[in-house]
Specification:
By secondary structure, this protein is α+β, with helices and mostly antiparallel strands. It has one domain: HIT-like (HIT family, subunit A, 2-Layer Sandwich). It contains four helices and five strands. Strands 1-2-3-5-4 form a five-stranded antiparallel sheet, covered by helices on one side. The longest helix has 17 residues. The structure holds adenosine monophosphate. The site of adenosine monophosphate (AMP) has 13 residues, from loops.
Length: 117
């Protein structure tokens, strides 16, 4: 999409710190990290949010296969990691190209969990 920030990153028009790439998926470091490790994972085909991406479930599969490669490749299994997506502005989505966050941190268990009030 013409005006989409993450489409511009896919096209190389805006730089990113690349973590992983194959023909369908791109992962790069979040510019404003919420944890020691904060990666974004996007599909190269534009969709607005997870709700829209769900019409193409193979894209969700592409994303999660990439997440498996990234987390294994960066030894995040031992440290533990969290994967999430914000669906819609009311949930905090600010970039409207579907993306999944991967967070990993020594203190992740005490950050933004359903166990902490
Ligand atoms: P969300 O708020 O869930 O839509 O997440 C959007 C994320 O994109 C935020 O965590 C931002 O820090 C991140 N972000 C915005 N612009 C860039 C960029 N140019 N490169 C890397 N990450 C970005």
């Amino acid at each position: 999409m013409e005006d989409c920030l993450f489409c511009k990153i896919v096209k190389g028009e805006i730089p990113c710190e690349k973590i992983f790439e194959n023909d369908k998926v791109l992962s790069f470091r979040d510019i404003n990290p919420l944890a020691q490790i904060h990666y974004l994972v996007i599909h190269k085909e534009h969709s607005r949010d997870l709700s829209e991406m769900s019409h193409n479930p193979e894209q969700i599969s592409d994303i999660f296969l990439a997440i498996k490669k990234i987390t294994t490749g960066h030894s995040l299994d031992q440290l533990g990691y969290r994967v999430f997506t914000n669906n819609g502005a009311k949930a905090g989505q600010s970039v409207f190209h579907t993306h999944f966050h991967i967070l990993s941190d020594e203190n992740l268990a005490t950050k933004w969990t359903s166990n902490v009030s």
